[in-house]
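pasting input
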Amino acid sequence: MLDIKNLNASIDGKKILQNFNLKINKGEVHAIMGPNGSGKSTLANVLAGRKGYEIEGKVLYEDENLLELPIEERAQKGIFLAFQYPIEIPGVNTNNFLKTSLNATLKFKGLKELDSLDFLKLVKEKSKNLKIEEKILSRQLNVGFSGGEKKKNEILQMTILEPKLAILDETDSGLDIDALKIVSEGVNSLRNNGRSFLIITHYQRLLDYIKPDFVHVLVNGKIVKTGSSDLALELEKDGYEGVSAIK
Amino acid sequence: MNLKFEEFQKKNISFEELDNIRKKSFQKFETQGFPTKKQEHWKYTDLKNIINNNFENLQIFKDDKNSPYNDKLIIKNFDHNKIILLNGNFIEANFAFEDKKKIKIKSLKAIFENKKDFEKIKDYFEDDQNSLISLNHALTNDGFILEIEDNYLFSKPLVIYNFFDKAAESKIINNKIFILLGKESSLSLVDFYRCENNIKYFNNTIHNYTIKKNAIFKKFSINDNLDNSYIYNSVNVKSYSNSVYENFLLSLGPNLIKNEIHCNLLENFSSCFVNGIMLLNGDQHHELKTNVNHKYENCKSSQLIKSVLLDKSSGTYQGKIYVDKRAQKTNGYQLSKALILSENSEFNSKPELEIYADDVKCSHGSTTGNIDEDSIFYLMARGLTRDQANKMIVEGFLNEAIETITEPNIKILILKLFNKRINNVNV
């Protein structure tokens, strides 16, 4: 599904990712943990296509050179980034945005676009699962949403768009326990053989709910350790410094 | 330019008093000429220059023959009363949805035939510093007076159709419109402009509204149609106790518009709301100038103007809130936000507060900037193309002002016109 080879990314000459390598197969759930400033969000942004980075290396996504694809095509081809800080866009109706986004993807796949009625039915069902109040969907996109509502809205978008590769950038931050559970259930319900996840987090807590197949420790732009989900527990105990020193 | 005033006056001889006002006003205009950017209020709209650059031979409109108007231009699927002006001439009024006993309307031409009627509006022909007002006094050829009795609520909106046809080519057309809304009455008014065949004209209209106690007057100024017109519109409002004046401006179409709104809050608890959008491209130049005068205690005013500028267009918002020393407990607010989408476009914003009372709550804000790249990235990361993302953001940005419209049916109409325009613009 995704094969990252010797990826280097820097911003204004400052190196953030250094010879980063990672392979994610279909159906796998990978977690990347790391301290502040280790390059976690940069990785997510580079994969989604955010501008402003100097990039070297290679990223293959379904055997295609991902780095050459424009942002929207990456999304249409099934890459989804759940933002750490979802953007507030005043005046844009959330439902309308969701519909435009879904239809852009459907159109790309050569599928029939949904009309308003079918779309609302779909949203109703999906938002119910995530315990999202319907009325927030008629509000302006992320404007005035609480931290939890914003994150749930990201997961709602994910469940509607049904991506092949979902990248969750610190989706757990700012969530209370109840919301964390709901969000995790949302993610778990999407897990299947054809769909992969890259979960970026500071804390092991989220991984109690979403069991990863692999845990990687990212320090200074490099993976310094890879293990099973037990590695997360180890991190919790010894901290990033302890674990990366063991190496 | 050589406006042939004598010729105009010969054709429009009435009673001496009016003839003299016209003559005096025209002399005043001639001494001053069209306003230039040297005048503070015209700093951002150099009208003299604009007129000289766009009209080779501007003439006074004199065609009295009323050709039929194009009734295809009437708004469809929208129940409304109508007043039709063609090239500024009053053609007809139709209050099909109302109790006609409660409504009086008379054309200005008819008023001008009768000295006694004229007495009622004589005060509105006062001298003014603004030479366009003098010009309007001198050359007004028609318009109307609409009087609505006390305790009458309009059941449907009233649309004023300002139609212009080929007889208006290279003409300056001056009108006056008077509306008196009685106590406890309400009216929603749509001021709607349409011109066909790319006729180039200059329209100078002065509106005078009187809003009596507890009355509600909502006005929607719709300039949506892309055309070759040059428009100056001055609205003067007198608001009495506990009355509401709302004015929404859809400023999208013509080459030039300068809209002025002078609202005088004269008695307790009266309020004034001015909201609107500008979406300009090409060489368009639109200005909104507001003057909200809080002259009494406990009055409220609020303004929200959102503008998007493309190509070589320019927009201006000059908003002034004046608070008289007796106007304690004033609540005044204004906000202007503009998105500049081309390096050749410009937006000027000049908020002004002039406050002489000490117990007031007034605020103003103004921002001008580009589309936020983080927002674009967010939308593109959800599969939208850059164009789609831009458009969605611009639409949302302007929508915030459209959302302030409190009349559902008119909101639908305005959204329809707005969508048509934004779909024809490359944002």
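fyi The two ends of chain B are 37 Å apart (CA to CA).
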